[in-house]
Structures are given as structure tokens and as C-alpha cells.
Amino acid sequence: MRIGELAAVTGTTPRALRHYEQAGLITSERAANGYRLYDAGTAVRVRNIRQLLDVGLTLDDVQVFLPCLDGDVTAGAASEKGLRVAADRLAVLEARIAAQIAIRDRLATALRQAGTGTRAPRTAPHRPHGRPTT
DSSP H helical segments within 11-134, as ranges? Predict the structure, then answer.
């Protein structure tokens, strides 16, 4: 099947499929005209990739699950490596959430103080790349 067909049956975009291919998660053959041609089984693999991405894993994380991407990723026993990757990703997400809560609390405090006539505290300047200030 061609890239547009695979995108349609998996609910993704051709751009995402090219990205998955570049990451080594899926493969294609090239037709004489240069079009990518995918095996019908690639649809299962793409759905599994999307499921793993939807729970918060990254494409790098998904690499660990390559051996089971062609079947039901939820049916088999979880590997130690897969569990470790998922636990590490959860820790990263929890740290980001905690940082965002701290920022929210500082902003809420500043707004409360501004509303009562008390001067809002100065905050550290914005740091690039989404790094929270502490």
C-alpha cells in the first residue's frame, strides 16, 4: 500500500509515517516511480507505535518495543527493559508536572498579592527551552 493509504487506515499523516521510517520503526520498499510501498502488516505496527506515543512515550522509547510492534503490544508479558523505559518516562512527566505546579503556585501568589495592593514578588527571568525557574 502507498503512504497515503497507510496514513488513512492508521489515522495518521504521511509526514508522521516518514518520521517513523526515518526513526527505523517502519520500513518500505520503493516502487519504480519512487513511491513508498508498505506491507499491509505495517498498519498494525503503526497503530502500536501510535498507542505507545499516546501514553507518553517518545519515539526513542518506542525502539525498546520493536520486537513486539507487529502483534498486540498489550497481550504479552512486559519486558524488564520496557517496564524500565515506561517508569523512567513516568518519572520525567511527574517532574515536569511538579515544576508546572510550582510555577502556577508562584503566579497565583503574585496575582493574589497584586490584588491586595501588595507588590508582586519579582520572578526569575524566563529560561529558554521550557526549563522551569526555581
Answer: 14-22, 42-54, 59-62, 80-115
